[in-house]
Each structure stands twice: as C-alpha cells, then as structure tokens.
Amino acid sequence: MNLQDVCAHIEQDLENLFEELRSGISQREDSRAFGAMIEKRITENWTKICKENSYEPMDIPGRRSIFDFAFKLEDKIMGIDVKTKDLDSQKYSDGGICAVGNLFKFLANDKGEFLIAEFGHNKSSSSKDARDIEYIRVAPFTVLPVQSYRIENLGTGQIRLNYTLNQIWEEIEWKRSTTQFFDYFSDLAIKHYQRVSRDAESRIRSIEKFREGGYQHFKFSK
Question: pTM score, two decimals?
Fold first, then answer.
C-alpha cells in the first residue's frame, strides 16, 4: 500500500465533490455550521467515493470514534478525521485531534491508518455572508513533521496540531513507518504526563495549604 497515493486519490475525490461549491459554499459565517455542512456532503457521497476507488466503505462511526469516515483497504482500516480550518488569523482554532490513548489503541490494537482531511476556508471574496474553500489536503497523521505535534490537558492528554497541513505540506515524511512515529510520539506523551503529574502534585499542595489556613486565601503554587 502506498499511503501517499491513497491520500492523493482521496484528496482528488474531495476536490471533485466540492468543486461546484468551492466559492460561496455557505450562507453562514459560523465555522461549526460550515464544518457540519462539509461532513454532511461527504456522508451523502461516501459510498460512491469508496466504490469508485475499489475501497470497502465502512459504516459512519459514532461520536466516540477518533475518525469521521472509514474504509478498508487490503484488510486495513483507514480512518479519516475531517478538519475544517478557519484561516482567519483573528479567530481561534485549537487544532484538536483526539486523546493520546485512543490514538494509540487505533494505530496499535486495530492496526489502523489515521488520515487527516483538512479543509481550509475563509470569508468569501464575493459575498460577506459566505465562505470559500481555499484548499483541501489529506495526509496520514503519523507522517507529519514532529514539530507540528503537541499534547495538552491534564486528564486525557489531548493531541493538537501546531500548524495547518497546508503550512507543513512540504515537510511531510511520507516514508516514515508507524514504529518510527511511535518512537517519537511515545516520548512526547511520556514527557507530557510527567509534566502534568508534577503540576497536579503542586496543585494538591496548594489546596491542602488553603484548607489548613482556614480557607482565607488561595492561589496555585508554581
């Protein structure tokens, strides 16, 4: 299986699917509504896209899955997470992907491939109440440049991306193996949990001091 070719085929299919709606695609500015519209259109055409590529389409997963769409290729589950990226620099976009444990389970236990399909969108050049798709990129999560990964959140360990796929496209390491990805990412995850463990212990001590002081003054110690 050549993952780069697979991603290129999916990317082209998505380009074709949205070509007629590429400009002025939505009447609403709300990015969530825009993202919901993108997913709805893919859902309506997913079986057709898979059959045209001789992929075995899989049922649309539930909300707890780390991906939005999936197919089987050579007995391997290919999960695709659709990300709609608002390119307005004045708007916050956290780049959230999934929890660390869920990613490890899918890649290792299920032997799956996790792909990101990113739709970069911006305010329409022709209508103030519409949006334009600026680009569509598809790539495996495991081959992105290492500086693009980060982990946040004390509890689950939420994986996020520091950059859009478009920004790092030329730096993607298409030949990186899943083992090579785990070598790096497991180290990143361990360092994250070591850090939050220290933070948690510090917060516990702060709360204990607050209680011992009769709840008169509180602050988290650094």
Answer: 0.85
